[in-house]
Known about the structure:
The complex is a heterodimer.
Chain A: H1 8-15, E1 21-22, E2 30-32, H2 38-48, E3 53-61, E4 69-77, E5 82-90, E6 96-97, H3 107-117, E7 121-122
Parallel strand pairs in A: 2-5, 6-7
Antiparallel strand pairs in A: 1-2, 3-4, 4-5
Chain B: H1 5-11, H2 19-29, E1 33-34, H3 41-47, E2 72-76, H4 84-93, E3 99-103, H5 104-109, E4 130-132, H6 139-154, H7 160-166
Parallel strand pairs in B: 1-2, 2-3, 3-4
The complex binds iron/sulfur cluster.
Iron/sulfur cluster binds near residues 40 and 106 of chain B.
Amino acid sequence: xxxxDPEILDRLQTRFPGSLEVVPSIDQPTVTVPRxxxxxxxxxxxxxxxxxxxxxxxxxxxxxxxxxxxxxxxxYHPEKYQRLRFKTFVDEDQPLPSMVDxxxxxxxxxxxAYDLFGIVFEGHPQLTRIYLPDDWEGHPLRKDYPxxxxxxx
Amino acid sequence: xxxxxxxxxxxxGILLTTVDKMTRWAQKSSVWPATFGLACCAIEMxxxxxxxxxxxxxxxxxxxxxxxxxxxxxxxxxxxxxxxPVLRTIWEQMPEPKWVISMGACASSGGVFDNYxxxxxxxxxVPVDVYVPGCPPTPEALxxxxxxxxxxxxxxxxxxxxxxxxxxxx
Lengths: 153, 170
Ligand code: SF4
């Protein structure tokens, strides 16, 4: 793994001692953040560390494990050309803080995660479906959603 | 061994026919498709108008951007649940008589996409006259489908939606 911001993980761990878990990864520095600290962590990453560009938020469903959703954020430092990945775990009934106030680019990706996984982002300006029709029931990328959908034919 | 009467008429520059046959001939010779590419199949649909395949020989090369100017809807690709109402609206906007070709495995049956998002066959949404199999069908296959449709029109068979509503009477 080639790093253009080599001390990033050390600095983050000094700033948030004992709460981050570094995940081995082959492409970019990755940490797991507890859900309660997510917003504080994100603010630090953007305002202090300068990761001002938001690439994406992804989700993985580990059903039937609990908490079932792994939510993964990708951010980028455009001057150091460095990417950073941080993730957290949530359950269906646990909302996550929305990142839209920090990174405007989080708007549509968060709607996508809401649409397909049903993850709720608190504070999102317009958390509605983005791909599926508005009257759709359920969240199709969940592992307990029928592959063929609620179709009758 | 004289000329047949038709040939004699033709010699004089006159051909006799019925208005009905004449209309059918005109209809089948200018089947204008609506531009409705939905997925990978649309690439083959586009190439059918290219000089290599030259659909213009059969008068069907004029893809219309407005459904109000089209007689034929070629459903080229998989139809998603979200696209289905749009497809139906466009079909309803087409003037009668109108025909539908379901192009490819996806449009005909859902193809490999047996999932929540894709309609399992466009005939759930609009009445289909000709199904063209393949994934994607070659341009020749689509052209064969269009030729089959021309035959159907020439024979005076009603479009599928009339067949369904009027029980086969044309
Ligand atoms: S039938 Fe094949 S080529 Fe056509 S839309 Fe489906 S997957 Fe694409």
